């Protein structure tokens, strides 16, 4: 089992319910319209938003369980989160951004080395640059690299092609495919683009407008 | 140096000492208050906000008088400082420093609060997911991003404390070499007929110091903006 999620969230008078389980490994796409709370779901898995109740486990480790009073802080969940708005640190250059999580990861958790990351993402020439000087595609690849280098057990990717022009799109799609096929970490991928999902996903979990996942747990 | 007379040097150095000590003590207090006002939501927030800003709107003479009542040798707080720390404030340079610090506090809290509120908390979240705990996130993300604002607040607070007059003269009195800072020396010279030249020189010194501080604080703010940090001052 990769992702095992069964949570409810009360927020601003609305009630969200997310329930799904995925097979081991591969890329799972969360597919649905904007405003369905897909990003909120990723935030809950990352530990940035606390669910009202329920349970979240990833690759066999329980990250949150309201009944058992388990709530791992984000820094102990080891998720590689590629945010929709990237969130590169503006006061640090590309090299420092990339190494931010890498430095804090335990050596035995670092399953990807820096040269390989730079090669796969094609960002070796950007190391001394400031984030604000990067193009959309460059910044996107740096954000992916920063997440990969933090030694994550799983990856959360929130619309990683949203800020990329058509030309760079293909490039980043290939990067994500390499991450999926060669690095073999479970990936939860949020998108509202059908073609993207068809191409990348091993399985698709639709999210309705009410923020409810349709398929019941098997 | 022959530019300033020995008396003027004494006044200048005392002013710098008083304001330096005031800043060293007030900086952590102001930062803690700014943090609480920017980040926490608790009952009494508005009251705390109002209390912090009180010295900004009260007549300085009232602030000085309140300090006098609180810290007189026979008042509980004054007795505590005298017994526990061996510190007295009345007629001492420490009193001038305290008055200067209290008067600069609201200005500093305001500036730091704005710069803390301008720090994008999403960046802190990103740091957390990358393995940094709360403290590391604060040190490596929040503080560096708020730093230009904190430094600008310090410079502004320093300039404000150099100019402090009313609370100081009420609380610590006007004693040469002990509490007679720049504004008090100017006031004193004004009382003596025929000392216009001295007033002019001291006033000029005061203008110079203030200009220096304003230029420095503006430079810090610009440097912060150049680094892509949006903070307000």
From TrEMBL, chain A:
It comes from the Bacteria. One of its GO terms (molecular function) is ATP binding. InterPro entries: AAA+_ATPase (IPR003593), ABC_transporter-like_ATP-bd (IPR003439), ABC_transporter-like_CS (IPR017871), Molybdenum_import_ModC (IPR050334), P-loop_NTPase (IPR027417). Gene3D superfamilies: P-loop containing nucleotide triphosphate hydrolases. Keywords: ATP-binding, Nucleotide-binding. Coiled coil: none annotated. Residues 2-218 form the ABC transporter domain. It holds the Pfam family ABC_tran. PANTHER family: ABC TRANSPORTER I FAMILY MEMBER 10. This is Molybdenum ABC transporter ATP-binding protein. It comes from Novosphingobium clariflavum. The lineage of its organism: Bacteria, Pseudomonadati, Pseudomonadota, Alphaproteobacteria, Sphingomonadales.
TrEMBL record, chain B:
Residues 12-220 form the ABC transmembrane type-1 domain. Keywords: Cell inner membrane, Cell membrane, Membrane, Molybdenum, Transmembrane, Transmembrane helix, Transport. The chain crosses the membrane at residues 20-38, 50-70, 90-109, 138-159, 202-221. It is found in: Cell inner membrane; Cell membrane. It is a multi-pass membrane protein. Part of the binding-protein-dependent transport system for molybdenum; probably responsible for the translocation of the substrate across the membrane. Belongs to the binding-protein-dependent transport system permease family. CysTW subfamily. PANTHER family: MOLYBDENUM TRANSPORT SYSTEM PERMEASE PROTEIN MODB. NCBIfam families: modB_ABC (TIGR02141), PRK09421.1 (NF006939). This is Molybdenum transport system permease.
